[in-house]
Amino acid sequence: MTAVPTPTGRRERKKAATRQKIADTALRLFMEHGYDAVGIRDVAAEADVAVTTLFSHFASKEALVFEQEEDFERRLTRAVTERTPGEPALPALRREVHALVRHCTGAGAAPVWRMIDDSPALRAYEQAMKLRYARSLTAALLADPGLSHSETSLRALAWFVVDAQSLAREAEDPEAAVDEVFTMIEAAWRAGAERPA
């Protein structure tokens, strides 16, 4: 797992360490015993924290599996909002999706994705998470004064970008899959820019 950037204050570092310990403990228990066989109380006991402490870091059992979801969401929106001045949005998004796919297909990721694919609750959570990513990315695109596409085009772009990550992680060659999807996105993007007013 890739750690979230290190907080600067002592209290923030301690909070981040507790969150990471809970997430790591949960994932280990889920992989050892199966997602459905492990309860929140089991995770809290094994991590040596109170159940209330666990819930102060994670809103649900499903969130324990997707412990970096908020960071991923921020990274997608920052690819748009914090890109180099004058840089087009699509190359910045392509670069970020490549980075996210490398994380999602890194060493040890396959068993976690199998667990997710085998759990209706985790699949539903992932779909809700992707919907939130697409909404956040759409908002960032709509707020960009340099993008003249219609709202429909920007919403579609956000969905394609979010789906690119899912498609690529399931592909035999994830890096090539990202490039293939973005080649199609770029063609559609150009066509949208050229549409008659």
TrEMBL record:
UniProt keyword terms in alphabetical order: DNA-binding, Transcription, Transcription regulation
PROSITE patterns hit by this protein: HTH_TETR_2 (PS50977)
Coiled-coil regions, chain positions: none
Transmembrane segments: none
Segments of the chain annotated as binding DNA: 39-58
Gene3D superfamilies named among the record's database cross-references: Tetracycline Repressor, domain 2
Family matches, as InterPro entries: Homeodomain-like_sf, HTH-type_TetR-like_transc_reg, HTH_TetR
GO terms of molecular function: DNA-binding transcription factor activity; transcription cis-regulatory region binding
Domain HTH tetR-type: 16-76
Domain of life of the native organism: Bacteria
Name of the protein in its database record: TetR/AcrR family transcriptional regulator
Organism: Streptomyces griseoaurantiacus
